[in-house]
Amino acid sequence: MALPAQAVMTTEEVQSFLDKVFEQAMHIRIEAIGPGTSRCRLPFDARHLRPGGTVSGPSMFQLADCALYAMILGTLGPVALAVTTNLNINFLRKPGPRDLFGECRSLKFGSRLVVGEVALYSDGDPEMVAHATGTYSIPPR
Amino acid sequence: MALPAQAVMTTEEVQSFLDKVFEQAMHIRIEAIGPGTSRCRLPFDARHLRPGGTVSGPSMFQLADCALYAMILGTLGPVALAVTTNLNINFLRKPGPRDLFGECRSLKFGSRLVVGEVALYSDGDPEMVAHATGTYSIPPR
Amino acid sequence: MALPAQAVMTTEEVQSFLDKVFEQAMHIRIEAIGPGTSRCRLPFDARHLRPGGTVSGPSMFQLADCALYAMILGTLGPVALAVTTNLNINFLRKPGPRDLFGECRSLKFGSRLVVGEVALYSDGDPEMVAHATGTYSIPPR
Amino acid sequence: MALPAQAVMTTEEVQSFLDKVFEQAMHIRIEAIGPGTSRCRLPFDARHLRPGGTVSGPSMFQLADCALYAMILGTLGPVALAVTTNLNINFLRKPGPRDLFGECRSLKFGSRLVVGEVALYSDGDPEMVAHATGTYSIPPR
Questions:
Q1: Which residue of chain D comes nearest to C88, CA vs CA?
Q2: ipTM of the complex model
Q3: Which chains touch C (3 or more CB pairs under 8 A)?
Q4: What local confidence, expressed as pLDDT, does residue C16 receive?
Q5: Domains of chain A by range and CATH?
């Protein structure tokens, strides 16, 4: 399907939707939403650390997955039952003990499947720290 | 390289190593370690929930990643700096609000790269809920 | 959905279907079909070689993809329009200049998505040479 | 490692190297090589077709894999023994019966592992038809 000319939910609406859906587990901040795009921030938290002071793999996975979901919400509106079916992540460099960003864009926006990619960056560093591609299944409406 | 005839660390040693490395973030229990294999349990915790009472994707990712690392530790001994370079996960069914298990086996145990697969099961259910394959890079020794 | 008690197409029927669909490109032999499983053989052919006398990556990809499709056909019957949406392959060891086998089993057989894994072996060698997981999208019927 | 300021092999040198290495199997044209980038073309050929007149998955896999290898050659110079360790591909849209392009860029250029992504396009169509990420292992030098 064609992407809408602009996102159908605001950044604040997506944040509010995700805060409600994930309750206490939602540490991620939605920073920007566009048609087929999102930008999310994982604030630095010592609990996400791995040895060497780096953000953990599961935290990076969570940021990538959340950025994909936020991108879908901004394009389709509130779809509570969209689910991740596949996520592939390459860890490229050790991120430092700083906030992480996930920049997401859709690669395909189908009626049943949405595929997107997410580039993860450590705050203040232009080198990508991880790259993910993922697929969400959209329930029939 | 050939796998050793038996694991070089006990289940308790792997648990103790991971508890120390991950400190407060380590909720996962190491249940069995063999040469090129591991079995790990993620105790059910309401904080890992997604809408619908299911365990979250990031929690399943963490269990898969930990099972791979435990398998490597049991085969190589304590290698603190092994890092995940790639993890691909397919989410197959919604797990219920119960403990999850990860059954891991190595597919290749090279001197520089270890590739393994992890089958994830919900306690008491024979159907696989997720399947992951991952690669760890082993530092030169 | 539940797998049928036995395959709904014979090995010969799957071979004939694929030979017709892929015409001259179909070098792969279907050796066994079961409910949610298949076994396929890629006969050795010098054209599939890479430097060092090993079977090429694209040939291994083709064998994995074909084994997934054959498994789906055996379970669903002739579905010409099923398409691969994702395939992830780990290359583990260099196969020798011999026939390759792909052993496929389904991980999830949904009404819209089928996920399966394929283990690839070089004829006469017990070590896996590659491992793939893939997803097919099944058209509405 | 840092990418060089410009590619260390020309487009013609990479083509000649690959033609020699793959002999008769090499249908792909190298169109551009830069530091950490490549652009390759798979000329349309009825033998790569799938039902419906679309280019086959294995052909798209081959184009993605070749674009990654060409990118590595252009950055490192002739490394005959670099091998693909992982390739993940998402098929997004059916390409038409036309030439395909693969646009490759490196995500990480390490001394042991190179990770890159490849966007595949059908000639004359701005929509991506497939997206791949892959890892090559570089032998010690």
A1: D88
A2: 0.92
A3: A, B, D
A4: 93
A5: 11-137 (3.10.129.10)
